[in-house]
Inverse folding.
């Protein structure tokens, strides 16, 4: 019996030793928990229900690609850029494409299935700038102290990056530009957001998921099982503005979204809620492009 139990453990240890640290880091990681480093107390504040408490980080990801690029989605903030690991310092260096900022993360622990990292304080300052203020009310990311993130390995795979909801190609809409956009570029950014929404439902359809969570991104739409509505601009302005060079461009983008409802949307008669959403987004995109 002892030999039977020991064999899987030996295989796991051998596999871990044969892999370099960089190869172990490369992959998709869920955020299991966030702690304040000084006290190791959870940074998650008490929420109204246990279900909310379990889903704050559910769809958040740290994705380190083998080609040295990364996609990070944390508390509705999205960062893309390049990563490199310094084995001597046990340091993970992240360089964000959108701003050129660099962030250092200390790798406290790493195995085949788990990684614990402590990013420098300015990383969370950036996350706070890009995150939804309402969501941050549930999470303590005091930028005067350090935080430690507990990551668990995620086994989901995509053969084609275009099908990956977290890939930069599908998240251009929320990468704030560093220079003004023209009308064509604003239209492309809004279209990218609509295609992103379509993709998350198509992904759920293809993978036969039970549900789609909206807590890892911000959208001006109110999505319900029986339809869709566009929120009032004043309601979404603080977060929508972050996706554009300035508030003037953001308002132009919002007006394009209004055109999604320029023609009646006919909801597909099906019990498959994801298929219905995909068809709904197709009609909305067509409506916007007809005008």
């Amino acid at each position: 019996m002892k030999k039977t139990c020991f064999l899987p453990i030996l295989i796991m240890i051998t596999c871990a030793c044969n892999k370099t640290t960089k190869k172990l880091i490369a992959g998709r990681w869920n955020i299991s928990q966030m702690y304040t480093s000084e006290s190791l107390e959870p940074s998650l504040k008490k929420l109204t229900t246990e279900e909310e408490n379990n889903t704050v980080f559910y769809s958040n990801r740290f994705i380190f690609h083998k080609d040295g690029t990364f996609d990070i989605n944390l508390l509705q903030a999205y960062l893309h850029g390049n990563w490199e690991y310094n084995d001597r310092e046990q340091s993970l260096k992240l360089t964000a494409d959108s701003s050129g900022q660099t962030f250092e993360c200390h790798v406290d622990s790493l195995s085949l299935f788990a990684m614990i990292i402590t990013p420098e304080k300015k990383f969370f300052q950036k996350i706070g700038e890009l995150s939804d203020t309402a969501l941050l009310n549930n999470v303590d990311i005091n930028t005067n102290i350090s935080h430690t993130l507990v990551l668990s390995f995620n086994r989901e795979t995509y053969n084609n990056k275009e099908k990956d909801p977290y890939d930069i190609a599908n998240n251009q809409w929320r990468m704030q530009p560093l220079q003004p956009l023209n009308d064509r570029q604003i239209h492309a950014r809004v279209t990218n957001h609509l295609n992103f929404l379509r993709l998350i439902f198509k992904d759920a359809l293809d993978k036969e998921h039970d549900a789609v969570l909206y807590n890892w991104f911000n959208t001006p739409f109110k999505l319900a099982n029986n339809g869709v509505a566009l929120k009032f601009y004043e309601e979404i302005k603080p977060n929508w503005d972050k996706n554009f060079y300035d508030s003037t461009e953001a308002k132009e983008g919002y007006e394009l979204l209004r055109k999604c409802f320029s023609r009646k949307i006919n909801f597909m008669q099906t019990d498959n809620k994801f298929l219905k959403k995909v068809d709904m987004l197709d009609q909305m995109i067509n409506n916007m492009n007809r005008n």
Remarks:
- Residues 175 and 243 are 6 Å apart (CA to CA).
- The beta strands are 27-36, 61-64, 69-74, 77-86, 91-96, 102-110, 114-119, 147-154, 221-224, 227-230.
- Residues 1-18, 45-54 have pLDDT under 50 and may be disordered.
